[in-house]
Design goal:
Tetracycline Repressor, domain 2, 24 helices, Four Helix Bundle (Hemerythrin (Met), subunit A), about 550 residues, mainly alpha, 3 domains, single chain
Length: about 550
């Protein structure tokens, strides 16, 4: 027992950089994919004739699959020994996670070098039977996705988890209870990861012809049958990858909570939630217009919406939320000199959170956002990437276009337009560029191009110190009049689009905003922001009614 604890202690205290941890995990997963590609018969899953199917399997679907298994094992062990430091559990499980390489090697040895023809079980009614009979080593379950090598892999994982729990528990009674609990948890985890596609298909596709399949296109056929609904279209692994991503987000949140990283509270408090609400409104606007255009142009019939469409929609909303987090944090990292004067209370400038941790959170949020978008649809991924590109050009050197008056707001206007397209792409996919109303995109761009100058009424001291050109830093006391005039211009131009009651309303609202900013010189921009947003909502509502 002492030797075992010594080994575990070395595992738990191993040191590496975040990049090394990530690269090592990816290397193990890719090696597992490589071994399956070589040893599986007839080699149809890991190396498809379709280039994009292979790329998605190797670099999206299976990395997410194994990451979810990894986090599930970590949480199972944490439940068994709750007093154990989560950081130590993460390191220990990570460093023995190479056990996932064992299944294809076991299969090759057990079949005398022939390999296993692995099928995929789709009959959910067989799950209770298979869970019980999978203990019988005399039966072959490879046609149901459970080879003998995988059963040995499961046994190996269970033994390692049990040894870890035993070595971390001193009380004998607790050891016995936790050993049994750990064994059944590990067994259940692996069984459910193998059977959930069939279970899910049974819930959603009742009446489907459930039969085991092992033909050359079986895996692709299974996933396309389950997940390619009206709007969730794309590569063969999209639907299942979304499930794994949601599991990872939930599991990752629980792991972070168990790590007691209190600085996440500081990050959430420092996010500009009114800006998030503003952009979220644009996102929902894109969804509404996209749905209307889909029913009006693409499919003039009853509006179809399945379980997975709703799941994909939630994934898209979650993805945009992570994208906003990432762009905000990247901006804060680059604005430290400015925020040290204008916002010294923020987590980064107050040194409550190390910059290294801040960057890890930003990178993780961006990766999650792009993965969610990619698995909703490839066009959605491209638009997400375009939105991030705009914010990158705005905030980050060498371009850092936020330094230049009007150029900065033009970039923000373009970013706002892409946010609208993000929402529309859920329904319209690649047709979003063609079918989405161009005049509405122009309205969004003009509104943000002129209206976003309102933000420059704040942080004047920080902008001056950071060399940021705004109306306030360029024109001094006349800057307020310039900003008020720009907002007034936006209201007039948008009103001219309709030549209806919106034009006089725009004139009145523009005068009110100009008065608040340039004449009354209000100390907070909130009244001006509310007036601006109210007019924008009125314009959009009128536009939707007129469609």
């Amino acid at each position: 027992m002492k030797k075992l604890r010594a080994i575990i202690n070395r595992l738990e205290n191993y040191q590496a950089t975040p990049g090394q941890w990530i690269a090592g995990f990816i290397a193990v997963v890719l090696l597992r994919c490589f071994l399956e590609a070589i040893f599986e018969k007839p080699n149809n899953i890991m190396i498809s004739r379709d280039f994009f199917e292979s790329i998605n399997a190797w670099f999206v679907h299976f990395p997410l699959f194994y990451l979810s298994i990894f986090l599930t094992l970590v949480l199972a062990i944490k439940i068994s020994i709750p007093y154990k430091d989560t950081r130590k559990i993460l390191k220990a499980v990570y460093l023995v996670f190479m056990f996932i390489l064992s299944a294809p090697i076991f299969d090759l040895i057990l079949t005398g070098g022939v390999g296993v023809d692995i099928g995929y079980m789709r009959n959910a009614t067989l799950i209770p039977h298979l869970i019980i009979d999978s203990w019988d080593i005399t039966q072959d379950f490879s046609q149901y996705g459970l080879s003998d090598g995988m059963r040995l892999e499961l046994l190996l994982a269970g033994i390692m988890a049990i040894l870890y729990v035993i070595a971390s528990t001193k009380d004998m009674t607790a050891r016995i209870i936790r050993t049994f609990a750990m064994f059944f948890m590990v067994f259940f985890i692996f069984e459910m990861y193998g059977f959930w596609p069939a279970l899910l298909s049974h819930i959603i596709q009742k009446g489907f012809d459930f039969t085991p399949i092992s033909d050359e296109r079986g895996y692709q056929l299974m996933l396309k049958t389950f997940y390619e609904t009206k709007f969730i279209r794309g590569n063969f692994a999209n639907g299942s990858s979304l499930v794994y991503l949601w599991l990872i987000v939930i599991q990752g949140g629980i792991v972070l909570w168990s790590l007691k990283l209190t600085y996440f509270k500081d990050i959430f408090r420092s996010l500009r939630w009114w800006r998030f609400g503003h952009y979220f409104f644009l996102f929902v606007l894109g969804l509404v217009i996209g749905g209307y255009e889909w029913t009006d142009t693409v499919n003039k019939s009853v509006f179809p919406f399945t379980f997975f469409d709703g799941f994909g929609l939630l994934s898209l909303l979650l993805g945009y939320t992570f994208l906003f987090f990432a762009t905000t944090i990247y901006n804060d990292i680059e604005d430290q000199d400015i925020d040290s004067l204008a916002h010294p209370e923020r987590p980064l400038t107050s040194a409550r959170i190390p910059e290294r941790q801040y960057k890890i959170i930003a990178h993780s949020s961006l990766a999650t956002a792009l993965l969610l978008a990619y698995n909703v649809g490839y066009p959605t991924f491209l638009i997400f990437l375009t939105t991030f590109t705009c914010t990158h050009l705005y905030s980050i050197p060498p371009f850092r276009l936020r330094r230049f008056f009007l150029v900065s707001t033009a970039v923000l206007g373009l970013a706002a337009s892409t946010v609208v397209l993000c929402g529309a792409s859920f329904f319209l996919k690649h047709q979003a560029y063609e079918l989405f109303p161009k005049d509405l995109l122009l309205i969004v761009f003009i509104t943000f191009f002129f209206g976003a100058n309102l933000k420059d009424l704040e942080d004047v001291q920080g902008d001056q110190a950071g060399g940021i050109q705004t109306a306030m830093t360029l024109f001094g006391n006349k800057g307020r009049a310039v900003i008020g005039g720009l907002v007034f211009t936006a209201f007039i131009i948008v009103g001219l689009f309709f030549m209806d009651w919106l034009l006089p309303l725009g004139i009145v609202m523009g005068i009110i905003v100009y008065y608040l900013i340039a004449i009354k010189k209000i100390s907070t921009i909130k009244p001006a922001i509310y007036s601006y947003f109210a007019y924008f909502v009125a314009v959009i509502s009128y536009y939707i009614v007129q469609m």
